[in-house]
Amino acid sequence: MSDNGLEKLKKKIYKPGEQLGKRLERPKVFQPEGKREKVLTKKWREIKKGKLSPETKKRLKIVGICALAGFLIAVSFFIWQRMNSFDKNKVVLEIKGAERIVSGDEVKYAVGGKNNTNLTLYNLQLTFRYPEDALPLEGKNFIETIELSDLEPGQEVRIEFTARLIGLKGDKEKAEAELSYNPGNLSSRFSNKAEFETEIVSVPLILNFDLPEKLVSGQSFDFSLVYSNQSDVSFNNLQVKMEYPKGFVFELSQPAPFDGDDVWSLGNLVAGEQRKIFIKGTISGEENENKAFKAQIGENREEFITYAETAGTIQISQSPLSISQTVNNSTDYIAEVGDILKYDIKYENTTDVGIRNIFINVKLDGEALDFSTLDAQPGSFNGGNNTISWNASSLPDLEFLEPHQGGKIDFSIKIKDSLPISSFADKNFVVVSAAAIDSENAPLSLEKIEITGQNKLTTKILTHLTLQAQAFYYDDEIANSGPIPPQVSQKTTYTVKWRLVNRNNDLSEVKISAYLPPHVEWTGVKKPSDADLSYNPQTGQVVWQVGNLSAGTGVLSPVQQVAFQIAITPAITDVGNLIELIDQSKVFGYDNFVGQELTDTARAVDSDLPDDSRANSQGAVVQ
């Protein structure tokens, strides 16, 4: 459009009230579209009529073939992917068995697996874990692993495992299974797991106490524990564990205990069998106090497994004539060699009527007692049966004891300074004092009542553990070197020995420790070479872990000993002085019979070497 035409158009557009006319002609810019539409329409008409050039036909054929090939590839890939895809959730693994049983019953676990995938499962391995308290009937392994054949799609496998389940009522025993495999040609290994629980609803092993309802404190009595197997199967390797109340003193049993005084080995208990354990002992306690006895039956497999348990109670009642005793103001005094035992005996008429002609006897028993030291005035002592007696002739108050009247007598005796140890059976020494009060003329109102009062007091004797620390220059176990007496700036080595003697009770957890002064050097030489001996260079502490130490060590068998080497290099300031080689040594141990820790201390050792006479004669002070 010319510049004049453009100006005219602007005036028309912006002139008020002016009207624009219609477009005079179709813009030329749209003409090419029209031509293209005609060309495309023509081509489609040619295709419909089959009037194509050879070149066009060839091109269309190639395009069609390519499209068909692409479609077939896509379909094939979809089918291949569908055939080779793997979903482990389609591999079924389950355990079936009894959900509720009686303890001791056999349980069959059926472990089943099924392959619901499209792939074959290769290298199958089934692992089965029995419940913790199970007794597998085939073999002793609690975990069984089985190699299985290949599992085709849709194929199933079934394996059975049999065990006897043992446990308490209400226990839930869990079995577990795991199936691992390689699906198809996949290199990855997959696994499926399953669990199954069985509840124990009852226990066929029965325990019952046959206990008296009431006893007088200090009274000796018999009781029994009845155990039976009410199932249809045998229980093997059974044990019974007893828990006694405080104040009960075991005397004997039939059969005899397997371990200590509270564990019995029963062996096998066949179906329907019943047995008894007979026990004799004495019991002490306060009036109206309830004493609970407990028992468990089970099997010891590394640790005790309880199958059944029971409890029974005895009440301590008051005797018409009561008697009690203490030793050194205690009812559970632990004595030592050389101790003087001071017994206080209290007696009382607990009824509302007077009782005449009372007598009191105390029988003493124990190889550890030195009867030559007995002081029991005004009582009389019968050396034939080791019994002290009091009656009205020696104690006028016993002629007639008023209602609720009581009194007190005492005596003392010493434990030997050296216990009689001649064999390894001579250990666990005790002193037993059995006191009894009675009357020859019981009142008519008490005629049908047992008026005798009894009390037994057992005193255990702690073992005598002795530690000796020695140092030597001339020693037959470890060769030493350096000048004697020690000299400034010259190294001298010594042998330190720890020696242990344990007399009358077995010990456990025995340990010796001591500190080396800063000027003392640890050389690392020790005898025996396998001794559990350690040295801490930061603290200077030497520790020997002895462990168990039998009664009679150093008495019936050689002393327990360890030797180790140390060294010193004196300084100028040490001239004219003795040099400390090792500080005080301490031993700790646990007396298994008494149930108490004990210690002993050995003196510090210096270069004086009092146990090495040859070296001592050559001098001990630094030169």
Write structural notes for this entry.
Keywords: Membrane, Transmembrane, Transmembrane helix. Residues 329-423 form the DUF7619 domain. InterPro entries: Chlamydia_OmcB, DUF7619. Residues 604-623 are annotated as: Disordered. The chain is mostly beta strands. The chain contains four helices and 40 strands. The longest helix is centred in the N-terminal third of the chain and has 31 residues, at 54-84. It folds into four domains: 88-202, Immunoglobulin-like, CATH 2.60.40; 205-317, Immunoglobulin-like (Sandwich), CATH 2.60.40; 322-461, Immunoglobulin-like, CATH 2.60.40.740; 465-618, Immunoglobulin-like (Sandwich). A hairpin with a 4-residue loop joins strand 24 (380-382) and strand 25.
Give the quaternary arrangement of the chains. Answer: single chain
Q: Which structural class matches the secondary elements?
A: mainly beta
User: What percent of residues adopt helix (DSSP H or I)?
Assistant: 10-25%
What is the top-level CATH class of the largest domain? Answer: Mainly Beta
> Kindly state the mean pLDDT as a whole number?
88
Number of domains: 4
pLDDT below 50 for ≥5 consecutive residues: which ranges?
A: 27-40
First and last CA, distance: 133 Å
Number of alpha- plus pi-helical segments: 4
Architecture of the largest domain, according to CATH? Answer: Sandwich
CATH topology of the largest domain: Immunoglobulin-like
Radius of gyration based on Cα positions = 49 Å
| Secondary structure: number of strands | 40
Region (Disordered): 604-623
Biased composition (Basic and acidic residues): 604-614
Protein name: DUF7619 domain-containing protein
Transmembrane segments: 60-80
